[in-house]
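Q: C-alpha cells for this one, please.
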Amino acid sequence: MPIRVTTAKRAFSLLYRNLAEVVHVEEDQYLSYDFESWREVSQLKQRFEPERHDWVRTVRFSLVVPRIIRLVFYDRLPRRGVKFNRRNIFARDNNCCQYCGRKFPTTELSLDHIIPRSQGGTTNWENVVCACLRCNIQKGGRTPEQAHLRLIARPVKPRRSPVLNLKLSHDKYRSWKQFLDHAYWNVELK
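A: Here is the predicted structure, written as C-alpha cells:
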C-alpha cells in the first residue's frame, strides 16, 4: 500500500538502517535491494546510464535516488490530510482559471476567495480557487454572482495530494505508476 512520498534523505536513512528496501523496475520485473546491493547497482548505472537517474553523491560513492522504497514493516497507517497550500491548489485546479476555464502558467495565476474575506469568506479548500489575473481583477471584492462570473467547478478538498497525480503523469516517475497500478490490481483483498 502506498503510504507517502518522501525525501531522498529520508529514503536513504530508512535504507541504511534496514527499515526499507529499494523496489526497482527493470524489464517489467520488480527487484528488491538493500542498501549495499543498491550501492552496487548504482555503480553500474553510473558507468552505463548516468543521465537517466538522479544522484546523491558522497565523498566515497554515488547512489541512484530510488523512485520506490518499501518499508520492511509498518504497524500503523498515517492519518495525514492534504496540505492546504498554493502548489496543491494549482494542481487541484490543473492550472486553469476557474472562471474563464483557460490554462495558465502558475506565474499568471492568483488565488481567489469565492466568497471574499471582506464578506465573511474563509480561507479553505471549498472557498479558494485558481483565477487568472484578468478574472480576479474583474471579480474584485465581490462574489461571482455579483461580478457576473460563473464558477467552472465547485472546489472540494482533495482526498490525496493533487501534486502526486501530476508527478505520476511525468515520464520520470513512470515506475511509480506501474508499481501502484500493479499493487492495486494484484493485492489480496481481505
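A few notes: The two ends are 13 Å apart (CA to CA). The CA atoms of residues 98 and 152 lie 5 Å apart.
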